[in-house]
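Journal club side-thread
Mid-discussion, someone asked how the predicted structure for our own chain would compare to the paper's figures. Pasting it here so we can look after the session.
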Amino acid sequence: MGLRRLIYGLYERRLAASLSPDRLPRHVGVILDGNRRWAKAMGMGVSTGHRRGAAKIEEFLGWCAELRIEVVTLWLLSTDNLGRPAEELVPLLRIIEDTVRDLAASKRWRIHPVGALDLLPDETARALKEAEHATANVDGLVVNVAVGYGGRREIADAVRALLHEHASRGTSIEDLANVLDVEHIAEHLYTKGQPDPDLVIRTSGEQRLSGFLLWQSAHSELFFCEALWPDFRRVDFLRAVRAYAQRERRFGY
């Protein structure tokens, strides 16, 4: 084990040294997948898997901070997952609340909840809002915490907010239809004012976005990693960033 750790340490340092600062992503999105499968493989309960996955988050954010990444979006709970049985969902929500409070207490990250907070239990929504308020003045990495998040729901919410805004100004539907463009919708997304994700990482070997940042990821580079989230290592992250840096970004062309 000692020799293996030494070899991996040397490999990590070589990987990190090979990354050019001007080829690094500004915004990294992560689909933290595989907690349940990890728990099953270990013969443990689902909640244990979620806790191990939650424990990985601060370590991961540290890796991102080392590379001076500006924004990280972590997908912790989808709108679809809100329909899971209460015996799994309730403990998971408690884990998310604890995790967000811990991240806020560290004063290292600026927390920004993204998702349909109105769909969440009051206690969970309150924990997210309090974390955002407590870290509003933190000069550090912006961490979008996606809870109760669905890409289609986000776009619907953005269009709804846009319609309400223009209705309050007295704009007719016809007038709005004549001027509406993609920027109008982008200004009402959960991530408004932020750069779109340059790199989206999904762990656990699944090769799909499942609705993650549907609008924002139109030109993102995708990296699918076989490791389950609790087993995700710094070397896996550096490989993802290296793969991103080696690609020629075409932005749809």
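Post-session note: Residues 32-150+198-246 form a domain with the Undecaprenyl pyrophosphate synthetase fold (CATH 3.40.1180.10).
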